[in-house]
Specification:
The complex is a heterodimer of chains A (about 260) and B (about 240). Chain A has about 260 residues and is an all-alpha fold. Chain A is built from 11 helices and no strands. Chain A has helices at about 5-20, 20-50, 60-85, 90-95, 100-130, 140-165, 170-185, 195-200, 205-220, 225-255, 255-260. Chain A starts with a helix and ends with a helix. The longest helix of chain B has 18 residues, at about 165-185. Helix content of chain B is about 35%, strand content about 25%. With about 240 residues, chain B is an alpha/beta fold. Chain B folds into 2 domains: about 5-80 and about 155-245, Rossmann fold (3-Layer(aba) Sandwich); about 85-150, no CATH class. A 6-stranded mixed sheet of chain B has the order 6-7-8-3-9-10, with helices on both faces. A 4-stranded antiparallel sheet of chain B has the order 2-1-4-5. The chains are: A mainly alpha (about 260), B alpha/beta (about 240).
């Protein structure tokens, strides 16, 4: 593995972001709007709901966590789609960059993109709504780490589809997070879901992450089992996603998608 | 002279349909070979396999003494490709694109290499311009610079002068001739421009329906088929099956 190649692909996207003010604005705009909206909804629920009245920032915190997940996942897909849209795909795959280096580079770039969007939004929550994510303490790091891993896992899964099926898979890239959101129990406890849906939800790391976020904020206690369960599930999904990406690459070489996708 | 590229019994089929069938050829060091054939004859599929973008159904490709299926990344370090159908990121400046690809190819002394290419390809005024805003002739020169950023010893060119005006087309051809002479690189040139192929190529491969139907020096093919030029040979070979 060569740092130069990882850095080269990172630079390609970094230049793209820094060259365009509208792109930076786009990265900041949506998370800020999303969090402002959920901030007001959160205030409303905190005033009128007995469930939330002990923890004003529960919904808003979960909204920020979900947005981080969403931005990481979409960010990874966008980086991949960018190569297709700019017809640079072939140039990338005839350079001596390894699949592992592509994945690592996109993982780092997706994080940078997500943070560019999220940091201003997080800073907004304190003066506007009097809420700080730091209330989650050191455990915030574990929650973010788990969400980050799941976000890039989804990104890798969708990119595998793009590799294998080409740009026709693009619509799936946009809809994955919306499909999983109901099972993630982002804004409500898992008991709300029908029993069958609960089984699906428990097979995803999201439910453990958001249940734990609520647990910390509402009960002021930490259940490490939730964090560990999320981590184990993330590990399984990440390994599966990376394996699928390698498989899709070989399949694309066999089917000729790598040639057609770039033209 | 040593072979830089060896293609041995190479075939590629999709769903039982043969795109390339059992082709064999070599490219020696310091040699330009032309790959001619009508659209859909298997040229792009062949180049795709040579670049490692396509997995052959059978056969073998050796480049610089290494097998593409075994040492793809090592081979890619020393080869490159130009096609008018692929582009560099449009929103980046020319310099940024060259830096990105320099890093991807782990080019040592990248600054010097970029300066060398800028000088050779007359890119001084274009370096800080946005790639997407350049004319097709300028973009072609930038693609050439990208293709040479890693100082390749094997270059694959797919219609490198397509859609260029005669002046830029001639500049590219002259550049390739001089560059090959200077660096002694091997080039596979797929083109529909017969005068270009006659001018640049030591030898020509004629493809039709995934098969190499004839090969030889341009002048030998012209004499063999009793035609005035390579274009007439091309038309004869690709139109009339009985004359193969």
């Amino acid at each position: 593995m060569k740092f130069n190649r990882i850095y080269g692909l990172f630079l390609r996207h970094f230049f793209l972001i820094t060259r365009s003010f509208p792109r930076v604005l786009d990265l900041i705009y949506w998370p800020s709007i999303q969090i402002t909206l959920w901030g007001f909804i959160s205030n409303f629920f905190a005033s009128y709901s007995t469930y939330y009245n002990n923890a004003v920032g529960v919904i808003l915190t979960c909204a920020i966590l979900y947005d981080f997940l969403f931005r990481t996942s979409i960010g990874f897909n966008m980086l991949f789609l960018e190569e297709i849209w700019s017809r640079n795909f072939t140039n990338l795959f005839i350079s001596p960059i390894k699949i592992s280096e592509i994945i690592i580079s996109l993982i780092i770039t997706a994080l940078v993109r997500a943070l560019i969007g999220l940091i201003p939004a997080i800073l907004l929550t304190s003066p506007l709504f009097g809420i700080s994510l730091l209330d989650l303490g050191i455990h915030l790091l574990f929650l973010f780490l788990n969400l980050y891993i799941f976000g890039i896992t989804l990104g890798i899964l969708v990119s595998s589809g793009l590799l294998r099926f080409g740009p026709s898979f693009e619509n799936i890239a946009w809809s994955t997070m919306f499909l999983l959101a109901p099972f993630g129990c982002i804004y409500y406890p898992i008991e709300i879901l029908p029993e069958f849906f609960q089984k699906i939800a428990y097979s995803l790391p999201l439910v453990y992450i958001f249940e734990e976020a609520r647990n910390i904020l509402i009960n002021q206690s930490v259940d490490y089992e939730n964090i560990i369960n999320a981590f184990y599930l993330n590990l399984i999904y990440l390994i599966t996603a990376i394996s699928l990406f390698y498989y899709s690459f070989e399949k694309a070489r066999k089917k000729g998608t790598l040639i057609n996708i770039g033209e | 002279m040593q072979n830089s590229v060896e293609v041995i019994n190479l075939s590629k089929s999709y769903d039982k349909k043969n795109a390339v069938k059992d082709i064999n050829f070599q490219i020696k060091e310091n040699e330009i070979i032309g790959l001619l054939g009508p659209n859909g004859c298997g040229k792009t599929t062949t180049i795709g396999m040579l670049l490692g973008l396509l997995k052959p159904s059978s056969g073998q490709i050796n480049i610089n003494g290494m097998k593409i299926e075994k040492d793809r990344i090592k081979i890619l370090q020393n080869i490159n490709f130009i096609s008018p159908y692929i582009e560099l990121p449009k929103k980046l400046t020319v310099k940024q694109n060259l830096v990105v690809y320099g890093k991807l190819y782990s080019v040592k002394n990248l600054k010097n290499r970029i300066e060398y290419l800028v000088n050779k390809l007359r890119l001084e005024d274009l370096l800080n311009k946005v790639t997407g805003e350049l004319s097709s002739g300028q973009k072609n020169r930038i693609s050439l610079a990208k293709a040479l950023i890693n100082d390749p010893n094997v270059l694959f060119l797919d219609e490198p002068t397509a859609s260029l005006d005669p002046e830029v087309g001639d500049f590219v051809r002259t550049f390739l001739e001089n560059y090959k002479r200077e660096k002694k690189i091997s080039i596979l040139l797929a083109s529909h421009n017969m005068s270009e192929v006659t001018r640049l190529c030591a030898s020509v491969l004629m493809m039709k329906d995934g098969v190499i139907i004839d090969k030889g020096k341009p002048e030998e093919l012209i004499a063999k088929h009793g035609r005035k030029n390579l274009e007439e040979v091309f038309l004869k070979l690709t139109r009339n099956k009985n004359e193969i």
